[in-house]
C-alpha cells in the first residue's frame, strides 16, 4: 500500500486508526506529509502488534506499507476506524 493519509471526511478531523498485525513481520512507515522526508519512521510490526494512529497523525503524517520483492510469508492486517454517520454520504 503506497503513501497516503486516512483523511476521508467521514473519519472526522482527528481519526483514531487502529491496526492489528497477524502473521509475518511487516514494515510500516510514517513520514511527515509536508516537510522533511528525513524524519521518516519505520516500525517492524510482528504478529500481535497493535499500531494506533491518533490525534493529528492523519493531518501531519502519511503512512505506507511498501511493496517488497522479498518473500515474507503469510500475514493479515485488521484495521479499525470509526465512521462518523453525519459525515458519511
Ligand atoms: O496495514 C496497515 O496496518 C494499515 C493499512 C492502511 O494503511 C490503511 O488501511 O489505510
Give an overview in words:
The protein has one domain (9-69, 76-83). 4% of the residues lie in helices and 38% in strands. It contains 1 helix and 6 strands. A 3-stranded antiparallel β-sheet has the order 4-1-6, with no helix packed on it. Strand 2 and strand 3 form a beta hairpin. The model has no long low-confidence stretch (mean pLDDT 93). 2-oxoglutaric acid is lined by residues 1, 6, 19, 28, 51, 63, 65, 77, 79.
List the helices and strands and how they pair.
Layout (H helix, E strand, L loop, with lengths): L16 E7 L2 E7 L8 E5 L4 E4 L3 H4 E4 L10 E7 L8
Antiparallel strand pairs: 1-4, 1-6, 2-3, 2-5
Number of strands: 6
Ligands (ions, cofactors included): 2-oxoglutaric acid
Structural class: mainly beta
Q: Hey, roughly how much beta strand do the residues contain?
A: 35-45%
Counted up, domains total 1
Shape: globular
Amino acid at each position: 500500500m503506497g503513501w497516503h493519509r486516512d483523511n476521508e471526511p467521514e473519519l472526522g478531523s482527528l481519526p483514531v486508526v487502529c491496526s492489528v498485525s497477524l502473521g509475518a513481520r511487516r514494515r510500516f512507515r510514517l513520514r511527515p506529509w509536508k516537510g522533511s522526508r528525513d524524519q521518516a519512521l519505520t516500525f517492524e510490526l510482528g504478529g500481535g502488534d497493535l499500531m494506533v494512529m491518533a490525534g493529528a497523525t492523519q493531518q501531519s503524517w502519511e503512512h505506507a506499507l511498501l511493496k517488497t520483492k522479498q518473500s515474507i510469508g503469510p500475514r493479515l492486517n485488521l484495521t479499525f476506524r470509526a465512521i462518523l454517520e453525519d459525515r458519511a454520504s
